């Protein structure tokens, strides 16, 4: 579980599939109200408080992004209590329990595959291994000092997806960045056919 502070009232939590499976949670469970998910959320908020000082009391907007190869990204934004709409009435305003999470949850599922590479040479190696599986695929960004390769589902044959992900995981790292963040904050280096272009212009290290 990786926690990043995005602002005074906002954090991003990156959960890998290993994080979920260790807690007995399947990806599909995140879409349902189950006790394990509540326990996981409580654990995330405790860790967020300990690591980055994020106090999660009060109303929270929780955005969950499910990604096929990486895991899940949870963005938590803190709101402010509105006593007029708390539903408890004036006599109870001072008795609101501290450990109450009022969550408004929105969920999005994306089939986009995103992996980051610290070094361009490593990306070149990965591209040469991938080129036999991918014809015309890949968009390349530079983001936060790393190279991020983005693959869309329509660019891949479904049967090849596990093999492609295995190669990406061997050379790169699952990233907590979303396609929308890349589009807004990343530097687009190759808008299309990135794997093919990298293989054409750069040779593998001997």
Give a description of the structure.
The chain is elongated, with a radius of gyration of 20 Å. 30% of the residues lie in helices and 30% in strands. It is built from six helices and ten strands. The protein has two domains: 108 residues, no CATH class; 89 residues, Alpha-Beta Plaits, CATH 3.30.70.1950. It has 206 residues and is an alpha+beta fold. The protein has a five-stranded mixed β-sheet. A five-stranded antiparallel β-sheet has the order 9-6-8-7-10, sandwiched between helices.
Short description:
By secondary structure, the protein is an alpha+beta fold. The chain folds into 2 domains: 2-109, no CATH class; 113-201, Alpha-Beta Plaits (2-Layer Sandwich), CATH 3.30.70.1950.
List keywords for this structure.
alpha+beta, Alpha-Beta Plaits, 2 domains, five-stranded mixed β-sheet, five-stranded antiparallel β-sheet, 6 helices, 30% helix
What is the secondary structure topology, with strand pairs?
Blueprint lengths: L1 E6 L2 E7 H6 L12 H18 L5 E10 L3 E8 L22 E9 L3 E5 L2 H11 L8 E5 L2 E6 L9 H11 L1 E2 L4 H7 L1 E4 L3 H8 L5
Parallel strand pairs: 3-5
Antiparallel strand pairs: 1-2, 2-4, 3-4, 6-8, 6-9, 7-8, 7-10
Helix pairs in contact: 3-4, 3-6
Organism: Fontibacillus solani
InterPro entries: MecA_C_sf, Neg-reg_MecA
Protein name: Adapter protein MecA 1/2
């Amino acid at each position: 579980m990786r926690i990043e502070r995005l602002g005074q009232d906002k954090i991003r939590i990156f959960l890998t599939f290993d994080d979920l499976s260790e807690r007995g949670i399947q990806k599909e469970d995140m879409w349902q109200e189950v006790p394990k998910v509540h326990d996981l959320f409580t654990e995330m908020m405790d860790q967020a408080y300990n690591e980055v000082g994020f106090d999660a009391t009060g109303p929270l907007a929780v955005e969950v992004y499910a990604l096929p190869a990486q895991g899940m990204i949870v963005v938590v934004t803190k709101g402010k209590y509105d006593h007029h709409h708390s539903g408890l009435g004036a006599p109870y305003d001072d008795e609101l329990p501290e450990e109450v999470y009022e969550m408004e949850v929105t969920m999005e599922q994306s089939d986009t595959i995103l992996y980051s590479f610290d070094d361009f040479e490593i990306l070149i190696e990965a591209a040469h291994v991938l080129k036999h599986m991918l014809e015309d695929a890949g968009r390349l960004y530079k983001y936060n000092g790393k190279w991020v390769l983005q693959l869309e589902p329509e660019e891949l044959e479904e049967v090849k997806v596990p093999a492609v992900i295995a190669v990406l995981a061997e050379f790169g790292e699952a990233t907590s960045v979303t396609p929308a963040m890349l589009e807004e904050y990343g530097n687009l280096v190759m808008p299309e056919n990135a794997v093919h272009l990298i293989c054409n212009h750069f040779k593998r290290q001997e």
